[in-house]
Design a protein that fits this description.
7 helices; mainly alpha
Amino acid sequence: DWLVRLNAGTNVTLFLLKSLPMPHIDESHPLFAPIVRLSAQLVCVRPEFDALWGSLGAVVATSKPAITPDHRAVVRRELDATIAHLYGIEHHEYQDLLKAFPLVFPNNKDGDKAREAYASGYVEVKNRLGL
């Protein structure tokens, strides 16, 4: 998302997409199940997605859809941190990357607090998954 916006305006071409560094993972990758679980928690929040949720079986067995704003924020932080690990982004790089989003993390106390929550989430994911 950030890299696309850095190189393109509102038009994203297939040429641009193919030039982006995207990891290719399958079910054997250690981050596959966490990414699927977290994504499902954000997507499967309405009855229309019950079948999808059910099809994921053990991957989501101990989780619940993220319906409340607070729960969604926690899941999104964890998903973003997991994706950062997938791309091999180090903690200091992640902190710098977060600063590139002034609309999400404004330069004030609230923005600093949110940025710190994301940075802490990075460390928590690293420790929990043994990365």
